């Protein structure tokens, strides 16, 4: 492999996380992946989409663990973005790993769901789709510009639908840290797809994807994540389910966050095992820099990056 230009400190950390023998293989995955998308089943069926793609010369491959997801096998992403299917919001471009947290959350018809940090809305739209636009969904985002993008996407994908009486959908542009003041113990399911240092999105051919990396950035994100986790947990009612996810490798933003939540709410929470048939995942880290994580923390799930999927951390926590 040619010389890797990543910061020395980051390489040392990745070495500790993955181990020497795996690291070289992991580094080969730090590049752009094939385009993947999800069919927007609120607007059309899979058969219709597949037929249209075939008529236009697109070849796609199914994803074993999610029937609505596909991998583009020929042609480019920009060609796919020129199709009516894309322009009309009948398909949505989304990385495969980004689809996992919502599958784990498992939103159902009639649920009350919160997506605490939601722009540009990839997961919000997936939640709405899995609920078949029936129940209550609140999607929040602090950043004004990203919030506008969220509103745009929700319109395009047909999630905003004021005529449907059994569908209550609200978009909020607030600080997620404070949302629990309004929604304490309210939701059946909460997703916190947290802002993070995004190490799993590093592309070695694009310096901008890692030039801002430093340990302080990890620390700052870990600090913010705790505040958001507190809010997310407080919004959840007894018996409800929280899914926490990040697209980073840093244990401070992953396992250590859950250790913190456990210390704070101990007996109230249970970390559930995640099983998705056909999706390969690895165990979470058993320890980080002299701190051994207890057994329950091993129920957290790390998705290792490969040719098709980026790295992701996902954990499913029940409020007892
Ligand atoms: C990982 S991204 C979310 C991606 C989104 N879930 C999706 O799948 O499309 C994290 C988001 O959290 C937002 N964010 C950061 N701090 C926040 C806060 N205090 N309250 C609410 N949102 C916040 C960021 O602006 C960013 O849009």
Automatic annotation (TrEMBL):
<feature type="binding site">
    <location>
        <position position="141"/>
    </location>
    <ligand>
        <name>S-adenosyl-L-methionine</name>
    </ligand>
</feature>
<comment type="similarity">
    <text>Belongs to the class I-like SAM-binding methyltransferase superfamily. RsmB/NOP family.</text>
</comment>
<protein>
    <recommendedName>
        <fullName>SAM-dependent MTase RsmB/NOP-type domain-containing protein</fullName>
    </recommendedName>
</protein>
<feature type="domain" description="SAM-dependent MTase RsmB/NOP-type">
    <location>
        <begin position="25"/>
        <end position="320"/>
    </location>
</feature>
<keyword id="KW-0694">RNA-binding</keyword>
<dbReference type="InterPro" id="IPR001678">
    <property type="entry name" value="MeTrfase_RsmB-F_NOP2_dom"/>
</dbReference>
<feature type="active site" description="Nucleophile">
    <location>
        <position position="247"/>
    </location>
</feature>
<dbReference type="InterPro" id="IPR023267">
    <property type="entry name" value="RCMT"/>
</dbReference>
<feature type="binding site">
    <location>
        <position position="175"/>
    </location>
    <ligand>
        <name>S-adenosyl-L-methionine</name>
    </ligand>
</feature>
<keyword id="KW-0963">Cytoplasm</keyword>
<dbReference type="InterPro" id="IPR018314">
    <property type="entry name" value="RsmB/NOL1/NOP2-like_CS"/>
</dbReference>
<dbReference type="InterPro" id="IPR049560">
    <property type="entry name" value="MeTrfase_RsmB-F_NOP2_cat"/>
</dbReference>
<dbReference type="Pfam" id="PF01189">
    <property type="entry name" value="Methyltr_RsmB-F"/>
</dbReference>
<keyword id="KW-0808">Transferase</keyword>
<dbReference type="InterPro" id="IPR029063">
    <property type="entry name" value="SAM-dependent_MTases_sf"/>
</dbReference>
<dbReference type="GO" id="GO:0008173">
    <property type="term" value="F:RNA methyltransferase activity"/>
</dbReference>
<feature type="binding site">
    <location>
        <position position="193"/>
    </location>
    <ligand>
        <name>S-adenosyl-L-methionine</name>
    </ligand>
</feature>
<keyword id="KW-0489">Methyltransferase</keyword>
<dbReference type="InterPro" id="IPR011023">
    <property type="entry name" value="Nop2p"/>
</dbReference>
<dbReference type="GO" id="GO:0008757">
    <property type="term" value="F:S-adenosylmethionine-dependent methyltransferase activity"/>
</dbReference>
<dbReference type="InterPro" id="IPR031341">
    <property type="entry name" value="Methyltr_RsmF_N"/>
</dbReference>
<keyword id="KW-0949">S-adenosyl-L-methionine</keyword>
<dbReference type="GO" id="GO:0006396">
    <property type="term" value="P:RNA processing"/>
</dbReference>
<dbReference type="GO" id="GO:0003723">
    <property type="term" value="F:RNA binding"/>
</dbReference>
<dbReference type="Pfam" id="PF17125">
    <property type="entry name" value="Methyltr_RsmF_N"/>
</dbReference>
<dbReference type="GO" id="GO:0001510">
    <property type="term" value="P:RNA methylation"/>
</dbReference>
């Amino acid at each position: 492999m040619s010389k890797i230009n990543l910061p020395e400190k980051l390489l040392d950390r990745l070495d500790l996380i993955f181990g020497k023998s795996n690291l070289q293989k992991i580094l080969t995955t730090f590049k752009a992946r094939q385009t993947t998308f999800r069919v927007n089943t609120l607007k059309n069926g899979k058969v219709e989409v597949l037929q249209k793609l075939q008529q236009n010369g697109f070849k796609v491959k199914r994803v074993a663990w999610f029937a609505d997801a596909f991998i583009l096998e020929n042609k480019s992403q920009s060609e796919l973005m020129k199709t009516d299917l894309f322009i009309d919001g009948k398909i949505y471009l989304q990385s495969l790993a980004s689809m996992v947290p919502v599958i784990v959350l498992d939103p159902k018809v009639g649920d009350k769901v919160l997506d605490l940090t939601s722009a540009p809305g990839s997961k919000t739209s997936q939640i709405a789709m899995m609920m078949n636009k029936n129940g209550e969904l609140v999607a929040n985002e602090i950043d004004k510009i990203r919030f506008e993008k969220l509103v745009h996407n929700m319109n395009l994908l047909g999630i905003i639908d004021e005529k449907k009486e059994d569908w209550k959908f609200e978009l909020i542009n607030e600080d997620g840290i404070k949302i629990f003041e309004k929604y304490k113990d309210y939701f059946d399911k909460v997703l916190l797809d947290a802002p993070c240092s995004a190490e799993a999105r590093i592309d070695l051919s694009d310096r901008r994807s890692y030039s801002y990396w430093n340990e302080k950035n990890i620390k700052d994100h870990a600090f913010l994540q705790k505040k958001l986790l507190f809010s997310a947990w407080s919004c959840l009612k007894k018996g409800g389910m929280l899914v926490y996810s990040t697209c980073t490798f840093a244990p401070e933003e992953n396992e250590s966050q859950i250790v913190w939540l456990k210390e704070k709410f101990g007996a109230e929470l249970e970390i559930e095992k995640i099983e998705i048939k056909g999706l390969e995942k690895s165990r979470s880290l058993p320890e980080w820099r002299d701190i051994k994580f207890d057994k329950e923390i091993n129920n957290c799930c790390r998705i290792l990056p490969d040719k098709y999927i980026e790295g992701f951390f996902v954990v499913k926590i029940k409020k007892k």
